[in-house]
Automatic annotation (TrEMBL):
PROSITE patterns: HTH_LYSR
SUPFAM superfamilies named among the record's database cross-references: Periplasmic binding protein-like II, Winged helix' DNA-binding domain
Keywords noted in UniProt: DNA-binding, Transcription, Transcription regulation
GO MF entries: DNA binding; DNA-binding transcription factor activity
Protein name as annotated: Transcriptional regulator
Length: 304
């Protein structure tokens, strides 16, 4: 009990430690916490005295954690998450009686495939929840989870942070999509035809190369990428008028092929499949409303 009530033990010090660990910079940590740089420096001094370790050592423009700080990182983050969860705990959640807005970031390719069920429920008035959909790049997505502006991130997300929780929703692969009236090939498309026609490439970050080009290089060949776009759902509309190929997630490609009179084909090489997951900040793991959202996402994924 005396250790708990030790006047040197201040939860704000742990918040400063966590912010420095995340930003590696005093000024950015101060900005994240809404305090002055001198307040962060003073708190770091108190932490060093309390722990008996420098904790962070300046290396150029960065504050790098010492081995002791690295060992403290996870238990102190868990302490902060547990405190936030205890202080903001909901008793229960009834989506038909309680208003709640959820903010979800996922590529538009997955919005069309995965989120139509919950949006239909919201539109028909069965629920009092609303949903704000974003398409953030992976780094911005993780930052938004951390600062609380995002409830859920959905996508191919191999890199997360230690305080994020994850659940795999389904497995996906890619297929080739094209307009058979403009690209006269018969599925399954061969490697020669796949590399002969120009490609319209989806890219979350922009750029003109992807894992497809790595696979082709391993086979000793290449393709011509005529254009790329971050807007996956624009691609099928463009293909109705342009003699190009694209490689899209299979569920989206088949949905668009049925709607627009396009054709799909397996890729002429094996790329395997990948996991589509949802991730969230661990502070929300015990929230009934957040748990309801994750359950609905799981239910929709099970129907695919």
């Amino acid at each position: 009990m005396k250790a708990i009530h030790n006047p040197a033990l201040d939860l704000n010090l742990i918040k400063v430690f966590d912010a420095l660990l995340e930003t590696r910079n005093v000024s950015r940590a101060a900005e994240a916490l809404g305090v002055s740089q001198s307040a962060v420096s003073h708190a770091l001094g108190r932490l060093r005295t309390l722990v008996g370790d420098p904790l962070f050592v300046r290396t150029g423009n960065r504050m790098e954690p010492t081995p002791r700080a690295q060992r403290l990182a996870e238990p102190l983050r868990d302490l902060l998450v547990g405190a936030a969860r205890a202080l903001s705990a909901e008793e229960d959640f009834d989506p038909q009686r309680e208003e709640r807005n959820f903010t979800i970031s996922t590529p538009d390719s997955m919005q069309a495939v995965l989120l139509t069920g919950i949006l239909r429920d919201a539109a028909e008035g069965d629920l009092r929840v609303s949903v704000s959909l974003l398409s953030l790049d992976p780094d911005a997505m993780l930052n938004a989870l951390d600062d609380g502006t995002l409830d859920l991130a959905i996508g191919y997300l191999p890199e997360t942070r230690r305080w994020h929780d994850r659940q795999v929703l389904y497995h996906e692969t890619h297929v080739c999509l094209f307009n058979p009236a403009l690209v006269p090939v018969t599925p399954p498309i061969g490697l020669e035809d796949y590399t002969r026609y120009p490609h319209l490439m989806p890219s979350l970050r922009g750029g003109l190369t992807s894992f497809i080009d790595d696979e082709l290089a391993a086979l000793g060949t290449s393709r011509r990428v005529a254009a790329s776009t971050t807007q996956f759902l624009a691609i099928p509309m463009i293909l109705t008028q342009a003699p190009m190929l694209t490689s899209l997630p299979a569920r989206l490609a088949r949905l668009c092929a049925d709607a627009l009179g396009l054709a799909t084909s397996p890729l002429p090489f094996d790329i395997g499949d990948y996991e589509v997951s949802m991730i969230w900040h661990r502070r929300n793991s015990g929230s009934p409303s957040h748990g309801w959202l994750r359950q609905r996402m799981s239910e929709e994924a099970a129907k695919l």
